[in-house]
Amino acid sequence: MYIGPFYFDTKEIFLILAALLLAVAYFLGWPLWWFDKRALLTLVVLMLFTKGLLPSIHNEAFFILAVITIFISLYLPIFQVVLFYFISFLMFRFLKVI
Asked: Global pTM?
């Protein structure tokens, strides 16, 4: 979909919508069971940046990385989750999986 000079794929639109909904839930204090709202908002914004900066990545491998990252955010601190995400993403790029 073109919005002005920008092209948005459906995955980017979903990530933007998820970031907006998480921001609203964070600021209005809506409860999210099990998850930390700040951690999820941070992860969604990081995923949006990496997906937006590298539009040629394979969606299946990126989806698996995103799901695993979100689920380990249940058990680990946000710093370790972000570190895992970036190291895994770099390894996937280095090994040409993504």
From this structure: 0.76
Residue with tokens 């919005």: 3
Task: Say how far apart CA 27 and CA 7 lie, in whole Å.
Answer: 29
DSSP 8-57: --HHHHHHHHHHHHHHHHHHHT---SSS-HHHHHHHHHHHHHHHHH-TTS
Tens of pLDDT, residue by residue over 70-80, are 889 989 999 99
Residue 83 has pLDDT above 90, yes or no: yes
In whole angstroms, give the CA distance from residue 1 to residue 65: 25
What does the block give as tokens for 13?
Answer: 């639109």
